[in-house]
Amino acid sequence: MKTAITEMFGIKYPIICGAMMWLCKPTLCAAVSNAGGMGNLTAGNYSTEEELRDAIRQTRKLTGKPFMVNVTILPSVHITAEHHKMYLKVCAEEKVAGLEISGTPLDKAVGKEFIEILKKAGVKLFHKVGSVRHAVHAEKAGYDGIYAAGIEEGGHPLNDDVTTMILTPRIAETVKIPVVTVGGVADGRTFAAALALGAQGVMMATRFVATKECEAHDNIKHEIIKRQEFETTLICKSIGLQGRAIKNKLAEEVLAVESTGGGLEKLIPLIAGERIKQAWEFGDVDSAPMMMGQSVGLVKDIPTCKELIERIVSEAKSDIERVKNIF
Q1: What is the rounded distance in angstroms from the CA atom of residue 283 to the CA atom of residue 85?
Q2: Stretch 153-159: mean pLDDT
Q3: Is 75 exposed, middle or buried (0-12, 13-18, 19+ CB in 10 A)?
Q4: 152/150 Cα distance (integer angstroms)
Q5: Whole-angstrom Cα distance, residue 92 to residue 121?
Q6: Residues 314/248, Cβ–Cβ less than 8 Å
Q7: 199-212 in b/e burial notation, b at 16+ Cβ within 10 A?
């Protein structure tokens, strides 16, 4: 395959693993990159400069291929503004291939000087956005690409609530930098559709949870297979931190608190990161907000990352040929 993303990073397939707290660590990151895609190392998993630097170096021992590092700049109890600056500093010094920035753009969160530092280090900058206006801002600020994240995605979609089907072409026709589709992608059909909409690649997160290399508990992986596309819900809208999670007992508790006007103080004990970490590790699917997208409805098995990526590419080729033969 040849797209702006494969050319930019020198990778085989324009399939990128999305950031996932507690899961995007060296093993999964390297597995995706070794399979021809682009792995992701989520900076928020690490509290100190030494820990993040060690994770980057561990990943490089497992793969000689490029990988992304995610830095999410959203309100957090444990991850501070100083953490954000530290993450960026380490990534510049280690000259990682690319950065996925989620939340507040770098120029507003930490200052334009960090964009210059990262670009001088050869780090490609991508911002995950849910609107055309935010994509335009990122392009003007000097980013190298855009992740167009539709409302279908797991995690924290923008509260504009625009679907991938509309967001990808709108951003692709507006900016001149490459666009990657995020949200609702999990197989060859959706990969092919994203390319048809104007994307130069796709990002998947939920789909990579149900792979052999992901360190999530098997209970979680099998739960994803059972879930249908209508079994997710949006939580934390009332505190400006909208997130899509699978419907479970904890999500019901969060929504109940929100319905009675309960604010951040009452919600923090329910959505705390440590609670989520324990759920991934021990497999209790009802004890934490499990952030997953509507693409759960497309997940049917637990392959290796290599098997998954090669199957997606093969299916996409077949689907593109099928559509071509219609005309």
Answers
A1: 33
A2: 95
A3: exposed
A4: 5
A5: 6
A6: no
A7: bbbbbbbbbbbbbe
Residue type for position 293: G
- Encode burial over 106-138: b for 16+ CB neighbours within 10 A, e otherwise: bbebbeeebbebbeeeebbbbbbbbbbebbebb
The Cα 227–Cα 139 span in angstroms is 37
Within 10 Å of residue 37's Cβ, how many Cβ atoms? 29
Question: How far is CA 23 from its chain centroid?
Answer: 11
* Neighbouring residues of 10: CB distance < 8 A, sequence distance ≥ 6: 66
Which tokens is 125 given?
A: 């900058």
**Cα 93 from chain centroid?**
23
The tokens of 16 are what?
Answer: 């990128």
Q: What is the mean pLDDT of residues 3-21?
A: 97
Task: Give the whole-angstrom CA distance, residue 37 versus residue 67.
Answer: 9
**226: Cβ–Cβ under 8 A, 6 or more apart, which residues?**
none
Helix (H) or strand (E) holding 40: strand 39-42
| Structure-block tokens of residue 323 | 């559509």
pLDDT > 90 fraction of the chain, expressed in percent and rounded: 95
The predicted model scores a pTM of 0.96
Confidence of residue 252 (pLDDT cuts 50, 70, 90): very high
User: Is pLDDT of 77 > 80?
Assistant: no
Catalogue all structural domains in the chain, each as residue range(s) with its CATH number: 4-216+299-324 (3.20.20.70), 226-294 (no CATH)
Identity (one letter) of the amino acid at 254?
V
